[in-house]
Design brief:
Helix content is about 0%, strand content about 40%. Strands 2, 3, 4, 5 and 6 form a 5-stranded antiparallel beta sheet that branches. Strands 7, 8, 11, 12 and 13 form a 5-stranded antiparallel beta sheet that branches. Strand 4 and strand 5 form a beta hairpin. The chain starts with about 30 loop residues before the first strand and ends in a 17-residue tail after the last helix.
Length: about 325
Amino acid sequence: MATMWQQMICVVLIAISPLMTSSPTDSAHAPSPFVPGGDLMAADDASPAFTPDGNTVYFMRGTERGAAVMESRRVDGQWSAPMVAPFSGRWRDGDPAMAPDRSFLVFASNRPASGVGQALDTVRGGKRLAGQGMNLWQVERRADGWGEPVRLPDIVNTCNSTFAPSIAADHSIYYIGCSPDGVLRPLRSVFEHGQYQPPYLVTVGDKNAQIRDVAIAPDRSFMVFSIKHEPSQPYRLAIAFHTDDNWSTPQDLGDTVNGGTHNMGSQLGCDHRTLYFSSDRALPAALSGKTSKANADHMWRVSLAPWLARLGDRLVAAAASCMAG
């Protein structure tokens, strides 16, 4: 999907920088499609965010007409047909991220700060793009559903290109936003004393690495993200582990995981060890005839077990009610 959310239209597949370590095994745990409701419309689907029990998923669906956050529920082992989430549908919304305790959800939107008026503009490459801006918004979970979305403060939304949130158990938010030098980089804003604090740069990879779509583990022990080093490279999925010194060297997830021309939109399942992402890789034959859009982005899932083995007993346990997949 050719939007700022994805930043991922690349047609030349070349080798990732040797500064990234290799996958533990390229043949283990090939990704499988994740298609809630069996719905393969002429659309791009990305960024599935699950409730802690794994039985409700929110994800972005984009078409030429716009994008919305969709909702699907699992009943008797089957996913329902996706419907527009109650807090979405009017503006261009995407990148939903669920708090690990389900108390709130954060998403990106081009809706104006006041909620009324014109959609946000943004500037890219010196050009103003009408309606293409993005800020982060938060919606609280209530007993009867969802509250009204509230824009996160300017201290988080430092520019109109703020997107791809991921929420840790301490309610800190990792996201892509404008760093002090004006470049889009991964940032973290800590939640303390009832408010978000000034964000700081999340330094991972070498200085030339371009990082997008960070998915943070609830305990911040690891994160998965998309990375590249040159404009002509595709974004590839990699993992890094939290260390005493900051973050480990990114470890590429290998060619079996990184299929197609791009792999973006990292999200973790409720078990914290299943990775969900979007890619234009070829669908299995049984599904390939069910979509009318060529080169569409679909959601995929893969086990991170080979990479997370190093955490051992330190791997955060999933809720007893979690049903991943």
